[in-house]
Amino acid sequence: MSPAEAAIRIEELTKELNTYNYQYYVLANPTISDYDFDLKLKELDALEQQFPQFLDPDSPTQKVGGDITQRFDTVRHRWPMLSLSNTYSEQELRDFDNRVRKAIGNDFEYVCELKFDGLSISITYENGVLKRAVTRGDGVQGDDVTANVRTIKSIPNRLKPNGYPDLFEIRGEIFMHRAAFQRLNNERIENGEMAYANPRNFAAGTIKLQDSAEVARRPLDCFLYFLYSNERNRLFSNHWDSLQAVKAWGFHVSEHMALCSSIDEVLAFIAKWEQGRYDLSYDIDGIVIKVNDYGQQEELGFTAKSPRWAISYKYKAEQAETKFLSVSYQVGRTGAVTPVANLSPVLLAGTTVKRASLHNANEIARLDLREGDMVFVEKGGEIIPKITAVNLLKRKPESQPISYPLTCPECGTSLVRKPGEAVHYCPNDEGCPPQIVGRMQHFIGRKAMDIEGMGDETIETFFKQGLLHNITDIYSLKDKQETLVRLDRFGQKSIENMLAGIEKSKEKPFEKVLFALGIRYVGETIAKKLASHFKNMDALAAASKEEIESVYEIGERIAESVTEYFAKDVHREQLERLRQHGLHLAIEEKTNERLGDALSGKTFVISGVFEHFSREELTSLIESHGGKLLSSISGKLDYLVAGDKMGPSKLAKAEKLKVPIISEQELLSMIN
Ligand code: AMP
Ligand code: ZN
């Protein structure tokens, strides 16, 4: 390659890799497999070594990757958080072993650990108390996400006295178990919210939330795998012993580790987990190999990016090649259209794959998918495999791009796509069969009206028989008993059960009814918040978009969806009928919830971290004394309750608008 050609290729690769880094670290939404990313990175690295005159100090090969966001305080790491060099091949692993041997001789051991697929975190403890948790960021500094990390159950906030150093940092990987991922992601899909591609993205997205209460609701876990402290080498002589101690201090350390005295033992460990990983409840993407002895680690030292005493071996995501046959378009209960690829059946990671998710029109365009293409499918942590690329070598010249349908495949209505959204919707919510059926199924669901004796299939059958057209018809079924008994499959007893279940559902509280309506973006939590703020359906229906948005933690997208819902006459009529059937369309004020009126009529915004209360506790404290929480600072705000580490822009705004700023203590004295 000539220097001129190299310069062009280097620039090309740099641009591409920077984009992938941005998608991976900032958007937590990678569009390339780790394997392909690493191949490109290695190509760039090789070119830069061959043509050092083109090496840019800001080249992607020179950084760890960055995920610093503006919303969190940036904190410098006391010990830099380096990356690990990694490989996919046995040969490179043997090369690593030879380098180690050359440097420190033959008398050493490796520790083999699973490489957990999550996001790394560094947690500082002072005198046994969790002080700070920081993301990797660019390796030198990261985001302070302490409040969020405190909510993770397996990370102790306070340790029992047990011989640990006064000051230490502990590092590990935050992740989400696959089962939790599937459950929560399905809920998101049902609520019309953006789905996450895999547990890692879900965990990364969660740790970056501004609302710690929401973080607390999402089950995250954490394995710890590094200890740093000035005292460390006095207390332990090697990594293995430190992890045993860390376990005794109350941290979650993986039981799947091994001490190996040769590279062949390491390779056996790798081989064992290549298949074994599918039996774990969480995702791993490889094995980390570390030289055990601290003294030997020091001898080996570091490169600019990574320690010379460790390496990671990454498993290739299992891939298969198969023929792409066609796209099916599924319409969900919120009208969202999801394209699904139909494939020639192929064996992948132990199961036969016939379908792959395509997410939305952007994904089809990104892949440049054409009918009859041969495609590569990959199964990572995902439930449904995805198409990673088209095999262009096998493309037929006459193949045609896929044209995304302009109309709903179920009802023929023109599809709409809101600016800035990737998903197409069928707007015919009252006339599109899967939406009607889906909404009724959601309404009777366990988390909504929880109607016993009635299931998804019952709804479908009744809809086909013309017995049900919308949710309100469910409460008229009792007048149609004669028709019901004439249907096959429904005995007298099961009809009675079902009708009793329907009657009983009328006792469900307002927040459940609100959730059951299936308004887009109004999941369980949002329904609860709206119910407790507006108290009844009429007030909510009459509220303007701005009023809804002013509720603590309700965003514009939700507010818009709610006002759109109530703007429709059909919905208002349905609510009127539900009211006549006797459903609860208002909250029942519980007298014991109200502890006093000291804050009655006053509005508050809470910001920062507090000494004695969590933000959630402060919220309920304020509300139970008659106060109301707002989401942002405005001239109308009565008080800003400020804790530690409040954002400087909030403070400035409050000062400019002359909003009184009070402490946790001052709030308490207002109540007493
Ligand atoms: P990479 O991101 O490919 O450079 O790999 C390095 C990352 O692997 C670290 O920053 C950690 O987040 C992660 N990792 C997962 N499990 C381990 C482990 N057992 N030991 C060290 N790092 C790990
Ligand atoms: Zn439709």
TrEMBL record:
<dbReference type="GO" id="GO:0003911">
    <property type="term" value="F:DNA ligase (NAD+) activity"/>
</dbReference>
<dbReference type="Pfam" id="PF01653">
    <property type="entry name" value="DNA_ligase_aden"/>
</dbReference>
<keyword id="KW-0460">Magnesium</keyword>
<feature type="binding site">
    <location>
        <position position="136"/>
    </location>
    <ligand>
        <name>NAD(+)</name>
    </ligand>
</feature>
<keyword id="KW-0862">Zinc</keyword>
<dbReference type="GO" id="GO:0006281">
    <property type="term" value="P:DNA repair"/>
</dbReference>
<dbReference type="Pfam" id="PF12826">
    <property type="entry name" value="HHH_2"/>
</dbReference>
<keyword id="KW-0436">Ligase</keyword>
<dbReference type="InterPro" id="IPR001679">
    <property type="entry name" value="DNA_ligase"/>
</dbReference>
<feature type="binding site">
    <location>
        <position position="314"/>
    </location>
    <ligand>
        <name>NAD(+)</name>
    </ligand>
</feature>
<dbReference type="InterPro" id="IPR041663">
    <property type="entry name" value="DisA/LigA_HHH"/>
</dbReference>
<dbReference type="Pfam" id="PF03120">
    <property type="entry name" value="OB_DNA_ligase"/>
</dbReference>
<dbReference type="InterPro" id="IPR004150">
    <property type="entry name" value="NAD_DNA_ligase_OB"/>
</dbReference>
<feature type="domain" description="BRCT">
    <location>
        <begin position="594"/>
        <end position="672"/>
    </location>
</feature>
<feature type="binding site">
    <location>
        <position position="408"/>
    </location>
    <ligand>
        <name>Zn(2+)</name>
    </ligand>
</feature>
<keyword id="KW-0479">Metal-binding</keyword>
<dbReference type="InterPro" id="IPR004149">
    <property type="entry name" value="Znf_DNAligase_C4"/>
</dbReference>
<protein>
    <recommendedName>
        <fullName>DNA ligase</fullName>
        <ecNumber>6.5.1.2</ecNumber>
    </recommendedName>
</protein>
<dbReference type="InterPro" id="IPR033136">
    <property type="entry name" value="DNA_ligase_CS"/>
</dbReference>
<dbReference type="Pfam" id="PF03119">
    <property type="entry name" value="DNA_ligase_ZBD"/>
</dbReference>
<dbReference type="GO" id="GO:0005829">
    <property type="term" value="C:cytosol"/>
</dbReference>
<dbReference type="Pfam" id="PF00533">
    <property type="entry name" value="BRCT"/>
</dbReference>
<dbReference type="InterPro" id="IPR036420">
    <property type="entry name" value="BRCT_dom_sf"/>
</dbReference>
<dbReference type="GO" id="GO:0003677">
    <property type="term" value="F:DNA binding"/>
</dbReference>
<keyword id="KW-0520">NAD</keyword>
<comment type="function">
    <text>DNA ligase that catalyzes the formation of phosphodiester linkages between 5'-phosphoryl and 3'-hydroxyl groups in double-stranded DNA using NAD as a coenzyme and as the energy source for the reaction. It is essential for DNA replication and repair of damaged DNA.</text>
</comment>
<dbReference type="InterPro" id="IPR018239">
    <property type="entry name" value="DNA_ligase_AS"/>
</dbReference>
<dbReference type="InterPro" id="IPR013840">
    <property type="entry name" value="DNAligase_N"/>
</dbReference>
<keyword id="KW-0234">DNA repair</keyword>
<dbReference type="GO" id="GO:0046872">
    <property type="term" value="F:metal ion binding"/>
</dbReference>
<feature type="binding site">
    <location>
        <position position="113"/>
    </location>
    <ligand>
        <name>NAD(+)</name>
    </ligand>
</feature>
<feature type="binding site">
    <location>
        <position position="432"/>
    </location>
    <ligand>
        <name>Zn(2+)</name>
    </ligand>
</feature>
<dbReference type="InterPro" id="IPR010994">
    <property type="entry name" value="RuvA_2-like"/>
</dbReference>
<dbReference type="GO" id="GO:0006260">
    <property type="term" value="P:DNA replication"/>
</dbReference>
<feature type="binding site">
    <location>
        <begin position="83"/>
        <end position="84"/>
    </location>
    <ligand>
        <name>NAD(+)</name>
    </ligand>
</feature>
<dbReference type="InterPro" id="IPR012340">
    <property type="entry name" value="NA-bd_OB-fold"/>
</dbReference>
<dbReference type="InterPro" id="IPR001357">
    <property type="entry name" value="BRCT_dom"/>
</dbReference>
<feature type="binding site">
    <location>
        <position position="290"/>
    </location>
    <ligand>
        <name>NAD(+)</name>
    </ligand>
</feature>
<feature type="binding site">
    <location>
        <position position="426"/>
    </location>
    <ligand>
        <name>Zn(2+)</name>
    </ligand>
</feature>
<dbReference type="InterPro" id="IPR013839">
    <property type="entry name" value="DNAligase_adenylation"/>
</dbReference>
<comment type="similarity">
    <text>Belongs to the NAD-dependent DNA ligase family. LigA subfamily.</text>
</comment>
<keyword id="KW-0227">DNA damage</keyword>
